[in-house]
Design brief:
This protein is α/β, with parallel strands linked by helices and 496 residues long. It has one domain (24-251, 319-328, 363-484): TIM Barrel (Alpha-Beta Barrel). It has 17 helices and 16 strands. Strands 3-4-5-6-7-9-12-13 form an eight-stranded parallel β-barrel, surrounded by four helices. Strands 1-2-16 form a three-stranded antiparallel β-sheet. A three-stranded mixed β-sheet has the order 8-10-11. A hairpin with a 2-residue loop joins strand 1 and strand 2. Helix 4 packs parallel to helix 6 (114-129). Mean pLDDT is 94; it is low at 1-15. The structure holds beta-D-glucopyranose. Beta-D-glucopyranose (BGC) binds at residues 34, 37, 184-185, 188, 245, 325, 397, 439, 446, 455. Homodimer.
Length: 496
């Protein structure tokens, strides 16, 4: 990667009040959405209920503005406009997810909903017609309710259910989709879903549910990856990976270094080690620490279920690149005697006897869990490279939570600062980052925050029946980065 230094050094242009940093040739830019957050059409054309439909209808009080994703951005009808926006931004790729309960209303392949296949065919063909690449997430938090009723991610059979669903989508879309993500952010899926009352199924099971989920997600991903690898890759040459949420944890003081490392292994490593490490399985230090906790609690088996040797082999190596989503950072320190952990959804930090702290100079974004620390993305990438080797890294989500407004200079600054750190990771640390994805193309249903929190490059008017989309300042800024394939860093910093 030495050439990257040479390219950068020879092409840094000092323009009167700014510096222009190019991205490596071939680096790709995208933007992302997820089905439940944008589609709407919650019960149209044969779609069945998923866990979010059920939850927001039964528990409006758990959503900040008591809203639902019933209509959301109405992308079920407005998808052409979404693709126009992708074109306006000149995206290289557009990441979106498939709704399991739209494609398989029973949750199983005994009935494939043709209307859903047609909808996604139209979207995929529309993306390709614009010269953009589709990046498809197979599952992004919206489990069919029928499967939740059978235990959802805590039931070991879900490994096969997910494999069956993946087979269906590969068979229908695999001729045109060459980039796939199996499951979005297992850490959020497992922690938030089994540890927080504001995410469905709101079945609180910090000792068992979370850890069963962790194991089943890894096996489900691996089975789907192997189906693609065996049946589709030889013909279509596509690539498939899991997308992992990487929050950067650092020690509050040097004595907490081991704890911070263990926390990285817990949140990032628990969903990476089995796939990317040479030995496979859970991160050994984490598995040991959690087994000790289980014993202390009187369980006769580890709460984090061990992998069999066969399972280790099944999961190991099931990647084509490392996909990561990154937003925020935290500091770690050891809990004092009797001190209670309060931050959700990271409940099982308690199992590591840790307390999560915020650094005073990290600005808080417009939602409770989000502190801005651009260096976290670089440090996270370097950590991943140290752990798992010189892999190809694709950033599949990054973006800022704000309140309303078109002149979103805070989001502009966020993108500039985080992308600068990505470039430093590439140029100074030789991390092979090949893609960056803005979360999100447009304002959408931000889970338990409803419509109160905005992440969009485009503003969406949720009181307009047509859900009009309007570009924000950040959309113009991002389009400019893509057009120039470079980042302009002002020498004088912009204050928020
Ligand atoms: C999820 C998105 C979510 C975003 C901002 C990510 O963890 O994949 O669905 O909207 O964070 O909260």
């Amino acid at each position: 990667m030495i050439w990257k230094h040479a390219v950068v050094l020879s092409t840094i242009l000092a323009v009167s009040s700014s510096t222009i940093l190019p991205f490596p040739p071939g680096f790709k830019f995208g933007a992302a959405t997820a089905a439940y957050q944008v589609e709407g059409g919650w019960n149209l054309d044969g779609k069945s209920e998923n866990i979010w439909d059920r939850f927001v209808h039964e528990h409006p009080e758990r959503i900040d503005d008591r809203s639902t994703g019933d209509v959301a951005c109405d992308s079920y009808h407005n998808w052409r406009r979404d693709l126009e926006m992708a074109e306006e931004l000149r995206l290289d790729f557009y990441r979106f997810s498939l709704s399991w309960s739209r494609i398989l209303p029973s949750g199983f392949p005994n009935h494939i909903n043709e209307a859903a296949i047609e909808y996604y065919n139209n979207v995929i063909d529309g993306i390709l017609e614009k010269g953009i690449e589709p990046l498809v997430t197979i599952h992004h938090f919206d489990l069919p309710q029928s499967l939740q009723d059978l235990g959802g991610w805590a039931n070991p059979l879900i490994v096969d259910w997910f494999e069956d669903y993946a087979k269906v989508v590969f068979a229908h879309f695999g001729d045109r989709v060459k980039l796939w993500l199996t499951i979005n952010e297992p850490v959020i899926l497992c922690e938030a879903f089994f540890n927080a009352e504001v995410f469905p199924p709101a079945f609180i099971s910090p000792d068992l549910g979370v850890y069963l989920c962790s194991k089943h997600v890894m096996l489900a991903h691996a089975k789907a990856w192997r189906v693609y690898d065996k049946l589709l890759k030889p013909k279509y040459h596509g690539r498939v990976s899991l997308t992992t949420h990487i929050t950067w944890f650092e020690p509050l003081a040097p004595e907490y270094e081991e704890l911070a490392e263990l926390t990285m292994l817990n949140f990032g490593g628990r969903y990476s080690h089995a796939i990317y490490s040479k030995i496979g399985g859970w991160p050994p230090a984490l598995e040991k620490a959690l087994a000790e906790v289980s014993l202390k609690r009187g369980y006769s088996r580890p709460q984090l279920p061990p992998f069999t040797q066969e399972e280790i082999e099944l999961v190991r190596g099931t990647y084509d690149f490392f996909a990561l989503n990154h937003y925020t950072s935290r500091l770690m320190r050891t809990a004092k005697e009797g001190e209670k952990f309060t931050e959700w959804p990271l409940g099982d930090v308690e199992d590591l006897n840790g307390i999560i702290v915020r650094k005073a100079d990290w600005a808080q974004a417009a939602t409770s869990w989000f502190y801005v620390n651009p260096e976290g993305i670089r440090k996270g990438l370097v950590w991943l490279k140290q752990q798992y080797g010189d892999l190809e890294f694709m950033i599949t989500e990054n973006g800022l939570a704000t309140k309303a407004g078109l002149d979103d200079q805070d989001r502009v600054q966020y993108y500039r600062d985080y992308l600068e750190q990505v470039l430093l990771a590439i140029n100074e640390d030789d991390v092979n980052v090949t893609a960056y994805t803005a979360w999100t193309l447009m304002d959408n249903y931000e889970w338990n925050n409803g419509y109160t929190v905005k992440f969009g490059l485009y503003e969406v008017n949720f009181t307009d029946p047509g859900r009009k989309r309007t570009p924000r300042a950040s959309a113009h800024y991002y389009a400019n980065i893509i057009r120039t394939h470079s980042l302009e860093i002002p020498t004088t910093s912009i204050q928020l």
